[in-house]
Amino acid sequence: MIDRLILGSVCGLFPKVDDALAIVRPDTVIRWHRAGFRLYWRWKSRHRCGRPAVSLEIRRLIGEMSIANPLWGAPRIHGELLKLGIDVGQTSVAKYMARRRGSPSQGWKTFLRNHADSIVAMDLFVVPTLSFRLLYGLLITAHGRRQILWVGATAHPTAEWIANQLTQACGWEQTPRYLIRDRDSAYGEIFVRRVRSIGIRDRPTSARSPWQNAYAERLIGSIRRECTDHIVIFGERHLRHVLLSYKDYYNATRTHLSLNKDAPISRAAEKAGRIVCRPILGGLHHQYGRI
């Protein structure tokens, strides 16, 4: 009834309105009405208050956390953000998490790091003496923190001698799970039986594949470049002393890129006191500290 009164009033005020309506189709009027209705509700539901927008820095942090921790869901990431003092809703966390294709899985770097503490590697290397005699050095290193577990020196590396060196390095109680070595003929039947008897899984590398024992090969290169290439070895006893001195320096003092500039035996930063210098290997290297 009211709409008829409105239309009648409009027609009384504007007698020629019929001519205008003649060029406008009913569908056009309905479309205008719907557009006006959308504009009205857009204005009525405009943003007035509520939770503030998530900053770009927090969005990036959420994405990085979801990528670095593929086994975490939105509740876990939301909990970590709350512990960091970041107040953001869990639905917002789910919104800004990185999208994955397929089920979550750990990366190869994480997988290898989780098994590194159970792996040791060993290898033999040759060192010439003053009289051009060849001596053999034995290196046993742990993959976890790249720590040198044992160094030995001999002129005749028999299988029994190598087996005894491995027993002294690892003991019978805290033995590693895997041993990586090459296929040198020096590792005879006696050595293989000893490895099996103490519960270590022997994993020889493929023939002519030194890259499969990369940690030991890389460490032997460091021993040559930083130690034996600069010292004339007099004999077996001298070589053993030099290798033990380098072992102490390598484990407790020398910083490593792979350990975030730390030593295999973690070395605390010293910030107070006077800086002192202590020579190692006769001054070939130096250790710096504070007193």
Structural overview:
A five-stranded mixed β-sheet has the order 3-2-1-4-5, with helices on both faces. β2 and β3 (148-154) form a beta hairpin. The chain has eleven helices and seven strands. The longest helix has 19 residues, at 26-44. By secondary structure, the protein is of the alpha/beta class. It has three domains: 2-44, no CATH class; 56-105, no CATH class; 116-254, Ribonuclease H-like superfamily/Ribonuclease H (Nucleotidyltransferase, domain 5, 2-Layer Sandwich).
Spell out the key features of this protein.
291 residues, alpha/beta, Nucleotidyltransferase, domain 5, 3 domains, five-stranded mixed sheet, two-stranded antiparallel ribbon, 11 helices, 7 strands, 44% helix, 16% strand, elongated
Summarize this entry quickly.
By secondary structure, the protein is an alpha/beta fold. It has eleven helices and seven strands. The chain has three domains: 43 residues, no CATH class; 50 residues, no CATH class; 139 residues, Nucleotidyltransferase, domain 5, CATH 3.30.420.10.
Instruction: Indicate the structural class.
Output: alpha/beta
Q: Provide the helix percentage.
A: 40-55%
Q: How many structurally independent domains?
A: 3
**Rg computed from alpha carbons, rounded to a whole number of angstroms:** 37 Å
Can you lay out the helices and strands and say which pair or pack?
Layout: H1 2-13, H2 17-22, H3 26-44, H4 56-68, H5 74-83, H6 90-96, H7 108-116, E1 119-128, E2 134-142, E3 148-154, H8 159-170, E4 178-181, H9 189-197, E5 201-204, H10 214-226, H11 236-252, E6 275-280, E7 285-290
Parallel strand pairs: 1-4, 4-5
Antiparallel strand pairs: 1-2, 2-3, 6-7
Helix pairs in contact: 5-6, 8-9
